[in-house]
Design goal:
Blueprint: H1 5-17, H2 20-29, E1 35-39, H3 46-62, E2 66-70, H4 77-84, E3 92-97, H5 98-106, H6 115-118, E4 119-134, H7 143-152, E5 158-161, H8 167-179, E6 184-187, H9 191-200, E7 205-209, H10 210-218, E8 223-227, E9 252-260, H11 265-280, H12 282-290, E10 294-295, H13 300-320
Parallel strand pairs: 1-2, 1-3, 5-6
Antiparallel strand pairs: 3-9, 4-7, 4-8, 4-9, 4-10
């Protein structure tokens, strides 16, 4: 039997729409079992705290447990690859950080994924400033004084980092590139040993994240010359930004959620909406801000733009400073 053209077109349209209904229903029902959140760092750091705080909010408001799973190692590439290889169903998420952008260039050709291609951003959580600190034995009290001191003592000032290509290493390298100072990079295996030597004056300057430094700054054991974000921090309101003296300088850590590429858009949208609701909650917001953080939030596209811009920025620094992965 030959169908009239109008009937045929209606049937064809209905058939094309059939797969959409299960996808919409799947997104609406999500999550129906516990969700893993892979944190590519060891427990107890800022990344872990942020993941657990937001994981608790999501658990309470989406009706399923968001279970934090720490997978540290290889500059976050181990944990990231777990998520890249996971099913794109919304049940394995990544707590993404600045390392994600850095590693694109640092490990180019050495890792089995492309972050911008293989991870879909869900939402940013917050940024955490790096802080430029010096040991009290350094005579400089301001960034201009430090630049003058460093130029008068080329190669005699040691700047610490927690490893080649880490965010604090690149913050120091960016400062060197933009000011023309000559400092010696001293690499440590972890923040603990680096901080011990910085407090002892074995190294003179560091560009570390605020949560790990703020108690020592307040106690006078380290001197904060500047915060490295574009705007001043409420946690250290009297400390200027580096960019007030070195226009365009900015270095900070950031945190947000990602998922495997091809995760249904409905699930990404649902998670994004709930994460933004959490960031607007006064209790959650206060806890994040108390870590020295600047709330991000926004759309999935906003977070993707941030990651893309950071990837390009740090790629230029890595190539200019000829930084190689360990």
């Amino acid at each position: 039997m030959k169908l009239p053209r109008r009937n045929f077109l209606h049937l064809a349209a209905a058939a094309a729409a059939l797969p959409v209904v299960p996808r919409i229903a799947f997104a609406q029902a999500y999550p129906t079992w516990p969700v893993r959140v892979i944190v590519p760092f060891a427990p107890a750091g800022t990344t872990d705290i942020a993941a657990r705080l937001m994981g608790q909010w999501l658990s309470e408001h989406l009706g399923q447990q968001f279970v934090i799973e720490n997978r540290p190692g290889a500059s976050t590439t181990i944990g990231t690859e777990v998520v890249v290889r996971a099913p794109a169903d919304g049940y394995t998420l990544l707590l993404a950080t600045a390392a994600s952008a850095i590693n694109t260039t640092l490990f180019e050709g050495k890792i089995n994924y492309n972050f911008l291609r293989d991870i879909v951003p869900i939402a940013g959580i917050f940024r955490v400033p790096n802080v430029m600190v010096v040991h009290p034995s350094v005579p400089a009290k301001t960034v201009p004084e430090f630049i003058a001191y460093a130029k008068a003592n080329p190669g005699k000032i040691n700047v610490e980092s927690t490893g080649a290509g880490t965010s604090n290493h690149l913050a120091g390298e960016l400062f060197k590139l933009m000011t023309g100072v000559d400092m010696v990079h001293i690499q440590y295996r972890g923040s603990g040993p680096a901080l011990i030597d910085l407090l002892a004056g074995q190294v003179q300057v560091g560009f570390d994240t605020m949560p790990g430094l703020i108690e020592y700054i307040r106690a006078g054991r380290l001197r904060a010359l500047a915060v490295c974000t574009a705007t001043r921090s409420h946690a250290l309101p009297d400390v200027p930004t580096v960019s007030e003296f070195v226009p365009g300088y900015e270095s900070s850590g950031y945190f947000g959620f990602g998922a495997p590429a091809r995760t249904p858009a409905g699930i990404i949208d649902k998670l994004n909406k709930e994460i933004n609701a959490g960031l607007a909650d006064p209790k959650v917001k206060t806890q994040l801000v108390d870590l020295g953080g600047i709330i991000l939030g926004g759309s999935s596209a906003d977070f993707k733009t941030l990651i893309t811009e950071e990837t390009e920025k740090w790629g230029k620094v890595i190539r200019a400073a000829n930084i190689k992965a360990d």
